[in-house]
Amino acid sequence: MRDSLRKPKSLRTLFIVLFLFQSGVFLGLSYLLFEQSKQRTISNLLAALTIETSERINNQISQELHTAIRLNAINRDIVAITNGTTNYNSLIRVATIQLNNFPNISAIGVSQVGGYSFRVNRYGTTPNQFDVELLSPERPNELQIFRVNHVGNKFVDLTTMRPFKVTDWPWYKSIQNIKPNSWSQPHISREGSNLVISTYIPIYPTDTHRLPTLFVSSISLEKINTLLEGQQFKVKSLAFITELSGELVGSTTRDKPYSLVRHKNKPGYSLKRIHIQNSSNPLLVSLAPLLPQASTLKPGESRLESLIFAGNRYYVETERLNFDPSLDWLLMTVISEVELTQDIQKDLIPILFLLVLLLVIMVILNLLTAQAIIRPIRTLQNRTREFVAPDTCLDTIAHPIKEISELDSAFVEMAQKIHITLNQLQTANHELAEQKAHLSQILDAIPIGVAIHALHGQVEYLNPAGMSLLGLTAIPNSPGLDTLNQDFHLFQVGQNRPYPTELLPAVQALHGQTTELDDLEFRQGEHRRIFKAYGIPIYNQAREITAALVIFLDITERKHLEQILQNYNETLAAEVRERTQALIKSEEKFRFALQSTVTSWWDWDIQTNAVDWSENFDQMIGRAPNSYPKNVDSFLSFLHPDDVEPTQSKLMESVQTDAPYKTEFRFVHPDGSMRWIMATGTVQRDQNGRATRMSGINLDITERKLAEEALKASEETLQLALSAETANWWKWDIVNDQMYSAPSFHDLLGRHGDELPQTWADAIALIYPDDQAKVQAAIQATLEHDAPFNVEFRMIPPNGKIVWIADLGALQRDETGRPLQVSGIMIDITERKQTQLALEESEERLRLALSSTGTSWWDWDILNNVIRWSDNFYAMVGRKPEDCLSQVEGFLSFVHPDDREQVHHAIQASLEHDTPYRVEFRFLHPDGAIYWVMAKGIVQRDETGRPMRMSGINLDINERKEMEEALQKSEERLRIALESTSTSWWERDLMTNISTWSENTDYALGYSPDSYPKNQDTFINLLHPEDRDRVVAGVEQAIATGIPYQGEFRLVRADGGVVWIMGTGHVEYDDSGQPIRMSGLNVNITPLKEAQQELERLTQIDGLTGVYNRRYFDQVLAQEWQVACREGDCLALLMLDIDYFKNYNDALGHQAGDSCLIQVAQTLQRSIHRSSDLVARYGGEEFVLILPRTDLSGAVVIAQRIQDLISAQGLPHPTSAISQQLTVSIGIQCGIPRPGQPPQTWLKAADDALYLAKEKGRNQYVVNGAEAAI
Known about the structure:
The protein is 43% helix and 27% strand. With 1270 residues, it is an alpha+beta fold.
């Protein structure tokens, strides 16, 4: 009886065993499902990763290969456009700039047998330096090698190789057996340090007997290796490219595809290709057996295989690349199963935890159920004991228990539900992984920051570009909107306080406002960036704001560039003002010099016969300004009749023979007076030697001529006086101190009789007091030393008018040598003295004028080799007068050593060929200082043409040279800054309407600089038609108001494409306030615009199907709804659903489902023919079409066309309940919207019609409001 009473315990044990068995089965099934899910996930992830790897590497390398081919085409077009006249230095400069802009191109060259051939190579890893190899027809069979900077300017010669021919270049040999735009096999570069592949494109000359010119670009295998090394993938993997033979081209490892091998019999090294069997990576070596099978693949095909290496499984995808038939390469991607399962396990851990939790809950429930079943049996047992004697044996008969049967049924139902739940979780996990990977690819690819803020301001997401821009390694934990500016260190540009919180894009977006701002500055220590940010609210289906999308991009460089441009404009304006003031001062000095020396300048345009001259020319000819026409005929009419023909002959001789123009003539004033003029001039000729202009000066020499005439008259008088013994003679009897004189002497002194001097003392008394001592000294020297008595002095007649006297006398002595008498003659030289004094005053004025303008004169006696200089010459050469030699050799010693040959050549040319002496050179001071001068001079010759004298001036041009050098440096700095930042300058002359711009604008538009005229009409034609009126109006407004112009517009390229430009400009005015010039800068912002457009496209396009997404559909529906309400037009809406798509997805898999959605989307795109119609993916397998200005009949036509196209496509649907092919159901809503009615009512009506189409059996379309399907 005791044993039978223990039966319940055995029953409990039975339940426990059953429960444990059930749990074991559950765990086994769970593990089996887990393994199956893991393998499917591995397959999907592996496919996605290999596709990503292949696409990235294919795109990257294809881009570089295409870049090389495109550079060849660009260089060919440059030469073709200029008909082969392009200077090879310009081509070298272009090739250098191209290498600087495309760092993965190794070399660019041009080859022409018998002509110019060059190749520009990178100089190792040194930035902005390139080596040029040049073969020229001037130096055949000689390879010149020199180094240039990043803009192609040579700064050092390296070496010269002789003999050398074009065919000796390794790249030239490598391209002989390939077609144009194909690629050569890898060959050794000239310096022997790398392996490269080359491509070429020819240009054939019109002369078919000559060989074509070849344009060659090369890419090194090292660059391809570097491209592969730089690839970043979500899962650690190994990728490498090899030829079909197994020789490596590049890999993601740091191993080079070649090795250096030391020569055995000679010094140096050579390059040897590495086969994967000889690789230092053992994993690569293990892949060698897979190569023979890869040769069966077609270009673009791939094969996925697996292998076991070092105890681990590896998956290998081999793809035969389809770059070019000449590049038969294989891409092999190797991914470890360990790397895949690590990520998968992270995603499946929550699912395993949930399964374990469900198992524990199930066991507990089963134990509780067993306890509940056993308790009544135990109670029954206890009650039986009360009625049965202790020693009575009670047999228990087992009967089926209803509760146990129900519990079994519950377990079965629970297992089925758990299985369904696991399948749903697995499907959801797969879709979530795909969406996460796709979104991650998009956000990782865009080069701008993207952040998502929750309703309370916390940052829920920040993409890698945003983390990098903000210098973050983790998203800060912001408690809310109030501290958002402090948490992310956001300030307003130019302010020291944080950016106002209420104006931040995230805050504005969370309040429903779309915001754009460009004055947001990030500051953290020394790290500062300026951002342009957009804030966009994110809505749910109920149009409630759920989050804020913030997009921000770095515009620090653009802001910095704008500041640089502004500073440069201010500096340039200051330099222009300073240069203008200096020019005004220089012109004022020159004008003063001309006025002070009675000199005028003139300029004759030989082609138009127009003559221009300075203002003081009117004084020379005695006419009022502007009272006569300025031409050669007027000039000749002012001349004395006897001087017209000689002067005209001199002019023509200079024009025809280039002989120096120098002559003397007379101007006849209207009052009959005359002025003597000495004219000099030089002829300017064009490149063909034709005389185009003649300019020179007119020097008034009237006073000199008068002095010469007076001197001549005086000399004649002296001759007459000397020939007449009694004319103005005088005698002094020294013994008796008695003075005697001729009668004519009385008239000279204006005295008669007793007024005449009787003694020597009386004669001295008649002399001007200041000159008496001089006369006494002269007579004393004669008496004591027999010196000739020759003295000039002044006398004062009774009329008080001073008379200048030239006194000549001789001493007579007796036998003993005692002085007896002095006799002589007196000559009136008053007129000559007055002329001499006037001439001295004129020379003094000239000296002051030359000194004030920094000019010195010089005179060289050629026969005696003696040079005289003005006093200010010594300041020019920085020496004292006693240190200067008065010979040509001494002069040349002052000249800078680099300029001496030039100066000596100019002097010799003037002496030998009678060409005008004009040269600019530098004086070198003893302290090393430099002094720039411009020397001019003319040669005077005797009757035989022999040079006798050379005289001229040295003009100080030191300030001008300093300004030119500073301006050149400033312009060079600006040019380099503009080229490095894709910026160009422009200028428009508002007086002539002529516009000019820098050459990089032409290149950006695909034109050569000389291919079209540069004027305002050309610029307007280059503008995009949609931007033309706006830009022209903005520029005209800037000219009218003086407000600087700034705007964005498009220029049309030669190939029809567009270039986005951010243009700025400011207006310059003359002294009267009239606008005369407008200039500014154009910044190429095409990459920024393309990034913005791509971002906008990504936010509008459904990532899977390529049609528009739900968000963009809502925007377009709202817009078309307003248009239809305003204009009273019909608006049709079609909502479409794929019949039994869930069954299709479950049966054929998600990849087939995705492919089906893509094909349906493409079919819907083909069903519409108007640009205003729109197809969008509404969600899942639902699509929607917006048909503006479409009535019901038109909407039905579109619906029928969709069904016909879907049916014709014949997509199989084995799990459909209505057809073996894919079908769709369509709901149609059409009509004229009423104002005040929300667009959502239209959408709901179309959805109701779609629901009705499904209720009626699917594969049909239903119009909302119709009683039956159509």
